[in-house]
Amino acid sequence: MKKGIMLAIASAFTFSIMNVFVKAASETIPVSEIVFFRSVIGAVIIFYLMKRTGITFSKKGVPMLMLRGMLGALYLLAYFFTIAHIPLGDASILAHLSPFFAVILSVIFLKEGMSKRMYILFPIFTLGAVLLVNPMSYDSYTVYALVGVLSAFLAACAATSIRYLSSRHHGYEIVFYFLAAGTIVSIPLMWNEFVMPSFSGWIYLICIGVVSLVGQLVLTSAFTHENVIVVEVVRYIGIFFNVMWGFLFWDETLSIYSIMGGVLIIGASIALSRQRVPAVPKPVSN
């Protein structure tokens, strides 16, 4: 097996482990607090790496860097909230709507053309999302699933901004702004609901911060060894990992609607990824 493919699988596996820690921590710790510790731990590590490698902060393009950071922070809040309230498998499938949104956003903001294939896949993505959200149920799950769709949209916004920034700034700097924004945004949100973590809670929080950063570094390495499209397709194995963890630790199962919606989204995403267009940016950090 090629090294790039092995790294892509490893990154998907690593992020799925992060999701397990997030879901476990969310049982006793508010989501905003989880985002804070996830962000501050990663920010400290990235800042250390920047100092060690001699990378300095840019004086130009700061507003765009701050916007990227804010979008990433809001994505984290929405995604962790989704993981905390619905099965890991469902949350993972909803997250894979981000390539679809990324294509739409790239057309609007980056002036990149939309292919005929995208027009064909548009209703498939929409139907898949509708089946996953299941609006006819009119229960709390619908709200949580809608937040999951929002997280995919925010991830696409962040990815679009990264595509714009990647040719102007070092990756470490872009990631630092993302984590710094997550730290700042989460402070007021957790101010009145802060919970002193137990010993196991501290373990979960530290693991979330470290594991998520390791996953990002492994994913970055995968892109240096293998084609972006190949890595994108291989990373869909992460859905299987999340479903597996959900079944093993929380006895979660997917409904028939989730399975149908997941098949449509995954199939359409793979079809979209197989097309060599610049509209689908590299994935961002989870």
TrEMBL record:
Residues 3-133, 145-272 form the EamA domain. The chain crosses the membrane at residues 34-50, 62-81, 93-111, 118-137, 143-162, 174-191, 203-222, 229-248, 254-272. It is a multi-pass membrane protein. Belongs to the EamA transporter family. The lineage of its organism: Bacteria, Bacillati, Bacillota, Bacilli, Bacillales. The keyword Nucleotide-binding does not apply. It is found in: Endomembrane system. This is Drug/metabolite transporter (DMT)-like permease. It holds the Pfam family EamA.
